[in-house]
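Exercise: predict the fold of this chain.
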Amino acid sequence: MQTDAKSSLHVVFLGDSLTEGWGQLPRESFPARLQTMLNQAGENIRISNFGVSGDTTGDALARLPHALADNPSIVVVALGVNDAYQGIPVEIATSNLIDICEGVMGGHANLILAGAFAPVSHGDMQRDAFRDMYFFLSERFHAELLPDMLDGIAGDPALTHPDGLHPNAAGYERMAVRFFALVSDVISKRRLLERRS
């Protein structure tokens, strides 16, 4: 017998230090803040944070089976910044992310991609190549995309640590707000499909 109670959804965030919440307490990371916001909005949501500081796309690909072990409903992939910092060719990062996206889709999870612009110090061409990579992947996998999750945050001393890149508590709060509408929309689509099945 069907009830009005919303089924529990498991959302996984696969990322690097930006996802992990570098420099802040775990409860101050943007995935933790996002879970609080979604729960307060009445969503029955559990978020698992698989962000690891320093991870490249290759590192994350190696631990993908662990992230998917609990068969999440939605997976947010937020990777690529460390590849850019380390000078890893965009072709390799793209190949790794294709494998990650295929793994996520193979588990029938909804996919959300989140990008961040490559450091300017490596040149405009590389930055543009990494930016274009996210749009390419979004189109290929028909995934929702947040092109630059650090837009308006990176470089703002009121929102970041002294390195100008990693958000502080206020910066992570802004990131959570930014993700809220996007993740909420994917949750609604997921629940609609559940009702039809």
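Check your answer against the key: The beta strands are 9-15, 45-51, 74-78, 110-114, 144-146.
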